[in-house]
Amino acid sequence: MSGRGATGEEVPGGRQVRVEVFPDSERLSAAAASLVAAQAIEAIRARGRFLWALAGGTTPARTYERLAEPPHREQIDWGKVEVFFGDERCVPPADPRSNYRLAEEKLISRVPLPAAQVHRLACASDPEGEARRYEGLLRRTFQGRPWGFDLALLGLGADGHTASLFPGLLPPAGPWVAVVARPGEDFRRLTLTPAALNQSRLLVFLVTGREKAEALQAVLKGEEAMADSPVPLLRPRAGEILWLADRQAAALLPLDWTPFR
Predict the structure, then answer these.
(1) What kind of architecture, by CATH, is found in domain 4-246?
(2) Model confidence at 256, in pLDDT bands (50, 70, 90)?
């Protein structure tokens, strides 16, 4: 991966945090798509299938488009891919706010991915019931594996949130899927919790735009302003977190940054 300014460090708890900075969001998206394809090929070769949790929001849209284009569309054995969602707004699937809608338009409808292997968070009518169903699905799917997701993609909000895990609204530690009611929104959300995301082999954050620079600096430095961010709770089972940032998002990162200390 040809990022600029790549760095990495072992951190307490066995995590390795790496940051790779790209000149712009287009080159970041290209690198992210290549990474997903490589992880899919490796997982299918080693274990027969690729379990992948998608990020919500608009940041991953171009990555999904690139995966649906040559060469990645042909490189991946889509019949052995299972897609999950890191979070969802509890709106109908055709609603413009739906994470599923974006993923379906940019990726799912454009590759030969069997419908039964797309595990949508269908929470518009019964968020609590869907949270229980989805948690059961994850636990059954992960049973007997060395980890759960082979790869989970995440984003980062300007307030330090990831998935639908918001500062000040973190769910209890036990459940894998939680219902979130964010003040000011006329819908609820479902989100995977740190307990579920930590079942991943690799967590990859995609961060773009100058408006994310303060949040990225704060969560990586462990600053007090982001002390209640969910990011420090993420400790993937295999111990690796990769941050892919464009130059604007990484504008405030010092060369000697030290993550989570």
Answers:
(1) 3-Layer(aba) Sandwich (3.40)
(2) low
